[in-house]
Amino acid sequence: MRKKTFPVIAASFGIALAACGSSSTSSSSSGSSGTSASNLPAAPAQITVGTTYSGSGSFATSSLPELAGLKFWIKTENAKGGVYVGGYKKRIPLKLIAYNDLSSATTAATLYNQLLTQDKVNIFVSDFGSVLTAPAVSLAQAHKVVLFDQTGTGIPFFTPQNKYIVLTDLPESSIWPNVLAKFLISKQIKNLAVLYGTNDFDASQATTLKSILSQNGINVAYYQGVPSSTTSYGTLLQTISASKPDAVLEFGYAANDTPFLQNVQSSGMHFKMVFTVFPGQLLSLFQQQVGTAGLAYTYTYGTNFYVNYPTVSEGLNSSQFKTQFAAAFPGQLNSLSLDGYNTGLVIQASLKNAKSLSQTDIRAGAAAASGHLNTLNGNFVINSEGAQTGELLPVAQLFPSSSGITLKAVYPASQATGSAVYPAPVG
Amino acid sequence: MPKLDDLDLTLETGSKGKKLISPAIAALVPIVAFAVGVHLYSNELLLTYMAIYIALAQGINIIYGFTGYLPFGYFGFFGVGAYASGLVMLDYNVPPVLAVIIGGVAGALVGAILLPLFRLRGAYFAIGTLAASEAIYTIISNPSLQSITNGPYGLNLAGFYSSGTAYGTAIALAALSILATSFVRSSKFGLTLKAIRDDSYSASMAGVNVPRQRFYAWLIAAAIAGMAGSVFGWSTSVFYPQAVFDPALSVLAIVFALFGGVGTIWGPTIGTVVLYAIYNAIGVSNPQYFQLIYGMVIVLLVLFAPRGLAGFWNYITTKITTVRAKND
Question: Could you list the residue ranges that cross the membrane (chain B) (predicted)?
Fold first, then answer.
């Protein structure tokens, strides 16, 4: 019996592998090769935009406004009859397919594949952040579909081998702190403390910053990575305080920045400069959770939400967007909703330049837009690997005001809307 | 007191022929179903993950169903496997299928290192494994180890990506895990494990080397999780440490195993297929109600089928037998 059973099992493994081998990856319905004007297929009745979002979990507060921004772009374009596709010289209506990944990378992966293999979407957009974008990268590459990566700034995504990714709304994470480093140098800060989450997004910023500052003779007296799940900073702050830094920089996600700022306030310690990443992106949320006193005179990245871009080459300008979006999606206006809308504008520019709806032509359309597209998020520039090198983030400071907290860009001078107060006043 | 070697296991579990046919069918059905399924439903990654979860649920079945030790930190072996296989692929250009086996060995090695956790029991053991897995995650994602593990920056295996081969390997792993469970269930080894689960002191008095037998079961479960993590990493291709050291992996695997019925061959497989299918069906069709519906489904199942589908099936068959006996 044993002799009969095991050959059957072995044969079955063989059948399974053979069956699976033939089912490798299939391309999207929109095809992957470039199209010349003479053999342009008929225009589809609609263009499907597929994405996932985090309806709950740790990324929900960032993902939901980003989705709202994308929805707003679709609504705006459909009101005009659809998005303009250069190859067809006409507008085609947009349809959104969005699945809830619950902030889980595993769930996101299967839903991304659902969008590619079942829904066969024309435009493939990833969820917020690097963790949830990661599973989409190789799927997009394997299916030869362009991934419009909204805010997944992780370094591993951008390689010379991957021609199917475009980072739309933020610079690659390793170049985020370039402006911040220049600001610290300009303030002649000599002794620094850096605390960062041990994840790709935060660690890459800390590494870049340390490297630039070391080259300029600035001492990073305290440099410590902590797990991304850290929410208690009392002991760490004691150690930081002992190093007597001129500036304390904490690179974390929103769930880290909030307790960090709360702990600084409750400890009664005073630092000349405190920098955190997310208040500039989720200011109203931080105002609720940390309060005016805890945020006053701290620094953050001044996302383009707080920079006024009156003249744009595509879409609404800053003030138009804020007015119209707030009316359409009350309570969801922040820098991430602007990012979601900006994703739409990059897609729009790519389609305007595209000769057809083939993925190769859409990717070529994005490359053609690079350097020429000015939106409410700044100048869109991507390198050959699809990584964003434009839209640099200014340094901003949070000032107490009659309405609570006001964010003003303080560096560089070209984007400044206020002057930095350094050192921060006591009390 | 009879020694285990004196027991006639054939009498307890049926004839030798039946002992071999039953596991063969249990392994063959999913192989054929997955091989055919991908031609009917082309979301291959979803099916790959389903096969991976079958393997994980079977691993939980071996360690919990047969020894009574519930490892909440089971995801630690999964993450170790994903990293071990990913690193040997990237650093030594090892073929992916061989790397999957190496991932299994790495999982077993970590299992051996964590053996002292068996000094704990019940909830303490569950929490101990959770803490150990979190510690492994923190070590692997530590920026100081970037030259070895790439720290928090994750791994990019895009150069090795092959969805079809990864799918086939996931199916083979699911079948292998079912065969492993079958072996455990029908062997003297399985009988000793059940004895340990029911009363380890009495088992020890009967001549069972409790630590050794438990250690073997632990290694098998850890190796399965390591291989499952390897296939996951390979099929996902670009991943961060938090994606493969995710406690939700343990939670889902435990829920799937319990729902199907632990201590059985078919239970974890059926539990995974049914619940994972519902999980994804709701996620695609009604994403806004996902957690509400899925939570309600699990609550109802726990209320009305506390021993899982296997227990429910036994209840039905017993009822039918009783009714027939009365009628006769």
Answer: 20-40, 72-90, 96-115, 122-140, 160-184, 215-236, 248-277, 289-309
pLDDT, one tens digit per residue, over B214-258 is: 999 999 999 999 999 999 999 998 899 989 999 989 989 998 998
CA distances from A368 to A45, A171, A324, A351 (A): 25, 18, 29, 10
CATH 3.40.50.2300 fits A44-174+308-380, yes or no: yes
Residue in this structure with the two tokens 């069972």, named with its chain if needed: B208
Asked if the interface predicted TM-score (ipTM) of this complex is over 0.90, the answer is: no
Q: Which residues of A50-84 are buried (b: 16+ CB within 10 A; e: fewer)?
A: bbbbbbebbbbbbbbbbbbbbbbbbebbbeeebbb
Q: Do A200 and B158 touch (CB under 8 A)?
A: no
Question: CA of B163: which chain A residue's CA is closest?
Answer: A24
Asked whether residue B12 is assigned to any structural domain, the reply reads: no
Q: How many CB pairs under 8 A join A and B?
A: 200
**Nearest residue of A to residue B41, measured between CA atoms:** A118
- So what CATH class is A175-306+394-411? alpha beta
* Domain parsing of chain A, residue ranges: 44-174+308-380, 175-306+394-411
User: Over pLDDT 70: what percentage of chain B?
Assistant: 93
Q: Is residue B310 part of a domain?
A: no
**What is the least distance, in Å, from the CA of A14 to any CA of chain B?**
9
With 80 as the cut, is the pLDDT of residue B169 above it?
Answer: yes
**pLDDT confidence of residue A228:** 83
CB < 8 Å to B284, chain A: 99, 111, 114
The pLDDT tens digits for B184-217 are: 888 889 889 888 888 888 888 888 888 899 999 9
**How much is the pLDDT for A11?**
47
**HEC string for B116-173:** HHHHCCHHHHHHHHHHHHHHHHHHHCCHHHHHHHCHHHCEECHHHCCHHHHHHHHHHH
CATH of residue B279: 1.10.3470
The minimal CB distance from B287 to the residues A8, A55, A204 is found for A55
Q: Which structural domain range is residue B129 located in?
A: 22-287
Q: What is the mean pLDDT of residues A145-152?
A: 95
Which uninterrupted H or E stretch holds A395? strand A395-401
Structure tokens at B13: 């579990």
Query: Which chain B residues are within 8 Å of A204, Cβ to Cβ?
Result: 153
Instruction: Please tell me what DSSP assigns to residue A30.
Output: T
Tell me how many domains chain B contains: 1
Please list every residue in chain B whose beta carbon sits closer than 8 Å to the beta carbon of residue A202.
Answer: 152
